[in-house]
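Example 4.3 (complexes with small molecules)
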Amino acid sequence: MQKNTQDVRQTIIDACLWMNSTGLNQGTSGNVSIRTDEGVLITPSSLPYEDMTPADVILLPGDGLSGEAIGPHRPSSEWRFHAAIYKERADIHSVVHSHSTYATAMSMLRRDIPSVHYMIGIFGGDSVRCADYAHYGSQALSDNALAALKDRTGCLLGTHGMIACGGDLKQALWRAGELEALCQQYHLACSIGEPHVLTGKQVEEVRERMETGYGVWPKA
Ligand SMILES: [Zn+2]
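Answer. The structure with zinc ion bound is encoded below.
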C-alpha cells in the first residue's frame, strides 16, 4: 500500500492538472483519491488545482468514514463514496470522479452502457452501470455508486458524471479516459444508427483474453 508522502500527494495534484488539460474534467468539479497506510488522501473542496500544493491534499484517517479530515480545507464533497469504495473493495486503491462531457451526457439518459465495444471488458463485466440519481455528496449517492460498482471498476452516476477505479492512480486515470472515450463512441454510433451489442459469450472471451494473454491495462 502506498504511504502518505509528499510525492504521493503530488501525484494527486498532477492527476487533477492532467485531467483538466485533457478535457476529462472542468474546473474543480472532479476529485481524486488514493488509499494509503494512514488513510484516504483526497483532493480538497473547491480549490483550483493550479494553486494546490501537497499540503492542501486532505487526509481522511483510518477507513476515511469517521468524518474526520486532516488538512487546511474541507475534503471534496464526494469523500463519502471514495471512502466507501475502499472499505467495500480490497482490489481498489485509487478512485477518480469526473464530470467529463460524454460520460455526463450519458448519465443524463440514466442508462447503462452495453457492450458496444470490447473495451467494456476493462470495467469488469458486460456493461457499465448507471447509478440511480441522488444528491451530490449524500450518503444515498455513495450507496447507489457502490451498487453500480458491484463487480465493476467504473460506473456512471445518474445526472451527474462518472467514477473510475484502479489498483493504483495510473490505472484509475486510464479507466477514466477509456470510459469517456467509450461514451463518446457510443454517442456517435447512436446518432447514426443502432449499435450492435456483443453477446455475453463474446464479452467473456474478451475478458479471458485480457486476463490471460493480451492484457491491455497498465499493471497496478
Ligand atoms: Zn461530481
